[in-house]
Design brief:
The complex is a heterodimer of chains A (297) and B (97). Chain A is built from eight helices and five strands, in the order αααβαβαβββααα. Chain A is of the alpha+beta class. Chain A is rod-shaped and about 185 Å long. The chains are: A alpha+beta (297), B alpha+beta (97).
C-alpha cells in the first residue's frame, strides 16, 4: 500500500538526512513512498500531453542521488522540490518550443513557467512548466533540439569530467566552451525567431497581395467595361442623334397621319354628300323619266 | 515502455538496464527500490532512475547522456550544428575518457 499523506515536517526531515548523507534504509523506503505518491499526478500530465500528440519521455521519479545533490546545492527543502516527477519534450526549434509552452499554459491553468532562456542557469537554456495536479507539482521540461544537445553535453561532461561543470565549475577551457556554445545556441535561436517572424510577415504580405490581386482583377474588369462604354459613346451619341431624328420623323409622320385622317374624314363626308346628291339626282331623273313615259302614253 | 537504468556517473556508463511494459509499473518501481537498497548496503553511489518512453529510440533521443560517451555526444551535436563541429576541429583539449 502506497502512503499518500506525508507531513511537510516528516518530508523535510527526510530531506535533511539525505542532504547530510546520513540516510538509512527506512529513509530510502520513505523517499520511495513519497516519490510514488506523485504517480497519479504524473499520469494525468503525461496523459494530457499524449492526447495533444506530444511524445514525452517521463521520469517517474527523480533519483536519490539527484535529490540529495540538489538539497546540498540549493537552499530548497525536500517538500518544496518541484521536479520529483516530470517529463521531457524535445521539439525542433525555439518557435515550436514557444508554441508548445503557450498550449501547455492552456492545458494546465495556473502552471508556473520557468524560462531559462533569457537567464540561463550556468548556460542551461530551456523552459520548464510546473503543472500542479491535486497539489502535486509535475515538471515538464520543454527543450528545443539545440538546447537539448547543449544540455546533454553539459550533463555528460559533468558526469565524466567534473560534477561541478553543470553548475559553473570545471576547467576554464571546458567552462568557456559551454559558455560560448550556450551563447551561440541563444544567438542561433534568436535568428530562428527573427526568421520565423520574417516568414510570418512574408506570409501575411503574400495573403494581402493575393487579396489585392483579386481586387485588381475586379477593378480591371470594371475598367474594361468602362473603356468599352467609353468607346461606344460616339456611336451612342450618333445613335441618339439618329434616334432623335427618327423621333422627329415619327412625330412628323404622326402629324401627317393625323392630317391624312382629317383629309380622309373630310373626303368621306364629301363622298357621302356626293352620293346623296347623286342619289337625289338619280331619284329625280327616274321621276322625270317616269313623267316623260306617262306623257308619251 | 518503462526503463530502469542504473548509471555510473563517473564512468559515464549504464550498469543495469531493464525494460518493463506500461502495465508493470509497480514491478519497475519495486525493482528500482531493490537496486537502491542494494547499492546503499554496498555504499555505492549510482544514479537509479525510472524513465517512461514510447520506445527505446525515443528514450535515446531525450536521454542520450546515458547511452553515448562525451565524444559521441559532441560528434552528434557537431553533425547538426556548426558550432560544435568547429569546436571539435579546434580540439577541446580535454580528455573525455
Amino acid at each position: 500500500m502506497i502512503k499518500n499523506a506525508f507531513s511537510k515536517t516528516q518530508i523535510d526531515r527526510l530531506g535533511d538526512r539525505l542532504k547530510g548523507g546520513s540516510h538509512t534504509e527506512s529513509d530510502l523506503r520513505l523517499l520511495d513512498d513519497y516519490r510514488r505518491s506523485f504517480g497519479e499526478a504524473y499520469e494525468a500530465v503525461v496523459r494530457t500531453l499524449r492526447q495533444r500528440g506530444e511524445v514525452p519521455t517521463g521520469r517517474l521519479a527523480k533519483s536519490t542521488v539527484s535529490i540529495a545533490e540538489k538539497l546540498r546545492r540549493e537552499s530548497i527543502r525536500l517538500s518544496q522540490m518541484q521536479d520529483i516527477a516530470g517529463c521531457r519534450i524535445v521539439v525542433g526549434n525555439v518557435v515550436e518550443q514557444e508554441q508548445l509552452v503557450a498550449s501547455l499554459k492552456t492545458d494546465f491553468p495556473g502552471a508556473t513557467l520557468i524560462d531559462r532562456r533569457d537567464n540561463p542557469s550556468f548556460g542551461y537554456r530551456a523552459i520548464h512548466v510546473i503543472a500542479v495536479i491535486s497539489g502535486k507539482p509535475i515538471e515538464i521540461q520543454v527543450r528545443s533540439s539545440l538546447q537539448h544537445m547543449w544540455a546533454e553535453v553539459s550533463e555528460k561532461s559533468s558526469d565524466v569530467l567534473d560534477p561541478t561543470i553543470k553548475y559553473g565549475g570545471g576547467s576554464d577551457v571546458w567552462r568557456n566552451f559551454l559558455t560560448v556554445t550556450s551563447e551561440s545556441v541563444a544567438a542561433c535561436e534568436e535568428l530562428e525567431k527573427e526568421g520565423n517572424a520574417f516568414y510570418e510577415r512574408v506570409k501575411k504580405t503574400v495573403a494581402e497581395l493575393a487579396a489585392h490581386e483579386e481586387l485588381e482583377k475586379k477593378a480591371n474588369a470594371i475598367y474594361e467595361t468602362a473603356k468599352k462604354a467609353d468607346a461606344a459613346l460616339p456611336e451612342l451619341h450618333e445613335f441618339g442623334h439618329e434616334l432623335q431624328e427618327l423621333r422627329a420623323s415619327l412625330e412628323g409622320l404622326k402629324g401627317d397621319l393625323e392630317g391624312h385622317e382629317q383629309v380622309n374624314q373630310e373626303t368621306r363626308r364629301k363622298l357621302v354628300r356626293l352620293r346623296n346628291v347623286i342619289a337625289d339626282l338619280l331619284s329625280r331623273a327616274i321621276s322625270d323619266l317616269d313623267k316623260l313615259k306617262g306623257e308619251k302614253q | 515502455m518503462i526503463f530502469l537504468i542504473e548509471y555510473n556517473r563517473s564512468q559515464g556508463r549504464i550498469v543495469t538496464f531493464r525494460d518493463f511494459d506500461d502495465s508493470q509499473r509497480r514491478e519497475a518501481e519495486d525493482a528500482r527500490l531493490g537496486i537502491e537498497l542494494d547499492l546503499n548496503r554496498k555504499g555505492i553511489d549510482h544514479e537509479v532512475v525510472l524513465l517512461e518512453a514510447a520506445s527505446k529510440d525515443a528514450l535515446h533521443r531525450t536521454h542520450q547522456r546515458y547511452f553515448a560517451d562525451l565524444t559521441g555526444l559532441l560528434k552528434s551535436a557537431g553533425g547538426q550544428n556548426e558550432w560544435a563541429g568547429r569546436w571539435e576541429e579546434k580540439g577541446s583539449g580535454v580528455d573525455s575518457r
